[in-house]
Fold this sequence. Notes:
It is built from three helices and eight strands. The chain has helices spanning about 1-20, 105-110, 145-150, and strands at about 40-45, 55-60, 70-75, 80-90, 95-100, 115-120, 125-130, 135-145.
Amino acid sequence: MRRTLIAGAGLMLALAVSTAVPGIAPVSAQVPTTKPIEGVWSGEVVKEGRPVPVPMTMIITDQPRGSRAGDIVWGAPWVCKSTLQFSGVNDKTFLLTLDSGNGPHCDSLRNGHAQVTPEGTDKADILVYDAKNKLVHKTRVERTARGQGAAANPG
């Protein structure tokens, strides 16, 4: 009888812990995704000593950690694209690995990473690092389109 009571109490405790508590998100809802930065972001890279700004567009879809989350596309004179893999979130900064590229600038960033820190809902700072963790450039971007459809079809 005592074992039955202990087993029953353990079951009740497990049910109480697994039951949703108002104000506390279930564990499955706490898995980080790129939803807060989903959309199309645009800006210009201005490097010290560079007379011409380079247009940059980041396209992000809502994805969980470990998934391909989008691309960064650089315009002339670099003209290349890097694929982004979502690595996680540190405080409010989204961490994305630069998986692949096409072109000399993007090839130099392969195995590097980007840190995206939103400011409000429509602005963000993007820091791009190479594989040796050296800051390559910082870009201030603005969200030009929102949502999965916008990111899939940036126009």
